[in-house]
Design goal:
Shape: globular
Low-confidence stretches: 1-35
Number of strands: 5
Number of helices: 4
Structural class: alpha+beta
Largest sheet: 5 strands, mixed
């Protein structure tokens, strides 16, 4: 009887250890099979970093920075962001647009197809409608005035 109990204990402890190892090797949500973040997750993170820098700049300057990515980098780095994100996960430059009065901004990634969708000027009605559960990573990721208005799951 002692040998049977000992055998069951060994089998159970091996099963628990194996289960722990299996669950530890599973990727977190938004991560690929080897634990790397998906292109959408990486890009959303880059956009949030850039948006945070733009928001901080606006607090100090009462307007959002405007211009090319080079202009933005000069305005934001290193004061508001150590290294300004310029590319999405698919190596396409982010599109950053500011309204003429510099009170609104939009940051767009072209998505995995690397082609930007047609969109109106900053502040257009499409910027105020949310599409947050798109299933196609070829769609643009769009961040407008502090929140995603178009995002792929």
């Amino acid at each position: 009887m002692k040998r049977l109990v000992l055998s069951i204990a060994v089998v159970l402890s091996c099963s628990v250890a194996a289960g722990t190892a299996l669950s530890a090797s599973r990727p977190a949500p938004g991560e690929g099979p080897s634990g790397e973040k998906s292109g959408v997750a990486k890009t959303a993170e880059q956009i949030r970093i850039l948006a945070t820098a733009m928001e901080a700049y606006a607090v100090d300057n009462n307007a959002y920075p405007a211009g090319t990515l080079d202009d933005l980098e000069k305005a934001l780095s290193p004061t508001y962001v150590e290294k300004m994100p310029r590319l999405d996960a698919w190596e396409t430059p982010l599109r950053v647009e500011t309204s003429k009065d510099r009170m609104n901004y939009r940051i767009t990634s072209a998505g995995s197809d690397k082609g930007f969708e047609a969109r109106g000027p900053v502040g257009c009605p499409a910027d105020k409608e949310k599409a947050l559960d798109l299933a196609d990573d070829r769609r643009d990721l769009v961040y407008y005035n502090g929140e995603f208005v178009q995002l792929v799951k």
